[in-house]
């Protein structure tokens, strides 16, 4: 239900424009604007706005604007759809499509088709949903509606993930990213809409997203754009949620809800409550849930059901089982009435847990059986989770033979899901890199051929002109002018080729950065189910991947593709490495003193990996829990032909010969010697100090 609610919000944001208005006559423009404005008011007082929507449809039917009638039918259908009245919504969507087709209104046609697809997706009728998603995409593509195309691909990837088809999930994630990269950055709604789909819910890159969104927020605040301010708050809150900083997430969801109130929308306090619950702040969680419950008379039926479901979840989280049972049963009844099969299958799963804890084993077995029967055709993810609940039920009941059966089933599903996600994604990554490499090689061969052709032409021209100049010395002025024009033309050709090469390199760096980000996300998925030691190793690996990704990001954003600003790179890389570790290990101060140095790609990569490794080691081993002031120092100096790079801490390390045998320091030593032509010295004086004297090839500033 949570993902469906976010999808609902996504549809409102993306499908909210009045794109077709420019083709209307002046006397119909006002009616068209009234219709498209109401499309975005479903989060307002629903009963009141629903009556307005019915009235506007009557007005459109009595007008001379046939297109307005088609759009109004879709608009009212969206109200029925948002309220869980799917059959009424489908009927109006089909009527809207018939009118939109007859007048070539592709935007309304695509929106109504996408809404039909989502209707079937919500009810887990996947074949029908797939058919209509494909149709909606083809229609949006005809008018190059990039936002609509990206949204449809995103929803399709969610559908396949829910269905358990991970190959298709990854395929549509990639397609969506390719479309989204064509949308201007200022118009993109990336993080708030879960752009990478439900597979990509964790990433170190959310820190970058927060910084970007804060800049956008300043701009929107300056121009007093309330809806954009609301969307930015929502973006930032969701990013903090993915970083597991639930207190900050809750604080930004509060701001988002306050902005919703300011523009006349019903605030979604459930978002706030959910993060306070995850932060184990019981009183705050229940306060905001009950605040949301007060608004149920103004909300849609799915939102009311979602409120009851979250109340059940929060009461279960805090072991208030009778209250949890009461709210889950209310949500279950409402979900069955709407035929939201994905939702009520998930509620059956939670009721297994509640009845098991209450000792009602017969009811727990009933919900387990009912849920598993539904999950086979509704959602692989629910089936996996129901096996886990079955394991818990029979362990609690003392039936260890059946508990073992469900435990093995759960483990098989978990391994299968992880294998599919990783294997399919790596296959796509390999294809992406091969394609980029072939494109690069082909482009380079073509450019070299063109350059050689120009050189041959120029050489032949120079020989010919030299001979002519001996015979016709008096026409030197004309010859000089001709040669000047030829050189100018060649210079223009070379300049054009250089720009094309730079654009290609920018694109390759961008693709590599995106692919590394996806690998990072998949590692995070695996780490959630791994043991503590394995999860820690995966976290270290993820930080190394981030060091690589940051280089490619800096290069594709830079005007100088051949050089890396070491000070900027090491500053950003070390701060974000520290931030990712502070979530688990406490606050540490980072003090940096870095010279302004430019270097090549290979040197920067090596220094970034060294910095990541030594900061990670310091965070793990240098400091005691009782230590008040924790500091890590980074120093980078340049002499005539050397770099002096030092990383130190003020921790509690003592002289230990075995430390040099650790994997981290052996890895650093290998980089120093083989990649940077240097040597490394380790000393102990109120902490560990590692000094590296390096002699790489460094660009002069």
Short description:
With 701 residues, the protein is mainly alpha-helical.
Head-to-tail CA distance between termini? 56 Å
- Which stretches are poorly predicted, pLDDT < 50 over at least 5 residues? 16-23, 186-203, 423-438
Number of helices: 25
Strand content: 5-15%
**CATH architectural designation of the domain at 1-199:** Alpha Horseshoe
Radius of gyration based on Cα positions: 30 Å
- How many strands, which pairing sense, and closed or not: the largest β-sheet? 5 strands, mixed
CATH superfamily of the domain at 1-199: Tetratricopeptide repeat domain
For the record, the CATH class of the domain at 1-199 is: Mainly Alpha
Explain what the structure shows.
The chain has helices spanning 2-14, 26-39, 46-61, 66-82, 86-102, 106-122, 126-142, 146-163, 166-180, 206-223, 226-242, 246-262, 269-278, 282-294, 301-317, 321-338, 341-358, 361-378, 380-397, 400-471, 476-529, 532-557, 566-585, 601-621, 663-675, and strands at 564-565, 589-594, 598-599, 631-638, 643-649, 679-684, 688-694, 698-699. With 701 residues, it is mainly alpha-helical. A five-stranded mixed β-sheet has the order 2-4-5-7-6, with helices on one face. Helix 6 (106-122) runs antiparallel to helix 7 and helix 22 runs antiparallel to helix 23. The protein is globular.
List the helices and strands and how they pair.
Elements: H1 2-14, H2 26-39, H3 46-61, H4 66-82, H5 86-102, H6 106-122, H7 126-142, H8 146-163, H9 166-180, H10 206-223, H11 226-242, H12 246-262, H13 269-278, H14 282-294, H15 301-317, H16 321-338, H17 341-358, H18 361-378, H19 380-397, H20 400-471, H21 476-529, H22 532-557, E1 564-565, H23 566-585, E2 589-594, E3 598-599, H24 601-621, E4 631-638, E5 643-649, H25 663-675, E6 679-684, E7 688-694, E8 698-699
Parallel strand pairs: 2-4
Antiparallel strand pairs: 1-3, 3-8, 4-5, 5-7, 6-7
């Amino acid at each position: 239900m949570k993902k469906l609610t976010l999808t609902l919000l996504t549809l409102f944001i993306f499908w909210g424009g009045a794109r077709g208005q420019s083709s209307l006559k002046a006397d119909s423009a006002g009616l068209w604007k009234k219709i498209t404005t109401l499309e975005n008011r479903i989060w307002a007082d629903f009963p009141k706005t629903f009556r307005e929507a019915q009235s506007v449809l009557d007005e459109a039917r009595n007008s001379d604007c046939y297109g307005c009638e088609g759009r109004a039918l879709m608009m009212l259908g969206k109200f029925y759809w948002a309220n869980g009245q799917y059959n009424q919504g489908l009927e109006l969507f089909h009527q809207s499509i018939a009118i939109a087709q007859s007048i070539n209104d592709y935007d309304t046609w695509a929106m109504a088709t996408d809404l039909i697809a989502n209707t079937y997706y919500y009810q887990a009728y996947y074949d029908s949903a797939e058919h209509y998603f494909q149709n909606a995409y083809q229609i949006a593509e005809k008018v190059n509606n990039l936002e609509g195309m990206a949204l449809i691909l995103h929803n399709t990837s969610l559908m396949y993930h829910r269905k358990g088809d991970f190959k298709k999930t990854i395929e549509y994630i990639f397609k969506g990213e390719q479309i989204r990269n064509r949308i201007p950055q200022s118009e993109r709604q990336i993080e708030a809409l879960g752009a990478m789909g439900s597979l990509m819910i964790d990433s170190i890159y959310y820190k970058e997203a927060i910084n970007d969104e804060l800049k956008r927020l300043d701009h929107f605040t300056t121009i007093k754009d309330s809806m954009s301010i609301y969307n930015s708050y929502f973006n930032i809150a969701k990013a903090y949620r993915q970083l597991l900083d639930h207190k900050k997430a809750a604080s930004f969801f509060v701001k988002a809800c306050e902005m919703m109130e300011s523009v006349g929308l019903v605030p979604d306090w459930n978002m706030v409550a959910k993060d306070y619950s995850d932060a184990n702040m019981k009183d705050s969680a229940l306060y905001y849930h009950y605040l949301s419950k007060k608004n149920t008379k103004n909300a849609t039926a799915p939102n009311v059901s979602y409120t009851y479901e979250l109340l059940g979840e929060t009461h279960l989280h805090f072991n208030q089982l009778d209250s949890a049972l009461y709210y889950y049963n209310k949500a279950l009844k409402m979900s069955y009435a709407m035929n939201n099969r994905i939702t009520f299958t998930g509620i059956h799963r939670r009721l297994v847990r509640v009845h098991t804890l209450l000792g009602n084993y017969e009811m727990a077995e009933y919900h387990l059986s009912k849920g598993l029967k539904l999950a086979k055709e509704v959602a692989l993810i629910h089936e996996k989770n129901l096996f886990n609940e079955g394991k818990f039920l029979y362990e609690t009941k003392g039936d260890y033979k059946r508990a073992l059966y469900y435990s093995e089933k759960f483990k098989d599903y978990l391994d299968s899901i992880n294998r599919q996600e990783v294997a399919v994604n790596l296959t796509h990554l390999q294809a992406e890199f091969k394609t980029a490499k072939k494109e690069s090689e082909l482009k380079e061969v073509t450019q070299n051929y063109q350059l050689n052709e120009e050189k041959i032409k120029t050489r032949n021209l120079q020989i010919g002109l030299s001979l002519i100049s001996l015979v016709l010395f008096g026409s030197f002025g004309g010859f000089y002018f001709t040669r000047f024009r030829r050189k100018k033309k060649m210079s223009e050709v070379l300049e054009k080729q250089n720009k094309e090469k730079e654009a290609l390199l920018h694109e390759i760096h961008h693709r590599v950065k995106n692919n590394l980000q996806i690998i990072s996300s998949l590692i995070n998925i695996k780490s959630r189910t791994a043991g503590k030691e394995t999860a820690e190793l995966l976290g270290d690996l993820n930080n190394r991947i981030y060091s690589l990704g940051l280089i490619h990001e800096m290069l594709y954003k830079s005007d100088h593709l051949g050089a890396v600003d070491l000070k900027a790179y090491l500053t950003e890389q070390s701060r974000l490495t520290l931030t990712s570790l502070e979530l688990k290990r406490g606050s540490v101060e980072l003090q940096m003193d870095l010279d302004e140095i430019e270097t090549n790609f290979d040197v920067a990569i090596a220094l970034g990996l060294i910095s990541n490794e030594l900061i990670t080691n310091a965070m793990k081993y240098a400091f005691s829990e009782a230590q008040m002031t924790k500091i890590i120092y980074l120093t980078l100096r340049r002499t005539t032909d050397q770099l002096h790079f030092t990383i130190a801490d003020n921790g509690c390390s003592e002289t230990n010969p075995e430390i040099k045998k650790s994997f981290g320091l052996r890895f650093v030593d290998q980089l120093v010697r083989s990649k940077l032509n240097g040597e490394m010295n380790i000393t102990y004086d109120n902490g560990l100090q590692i000094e590296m004297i390096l002699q790489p090839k460094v660009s002069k500033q």
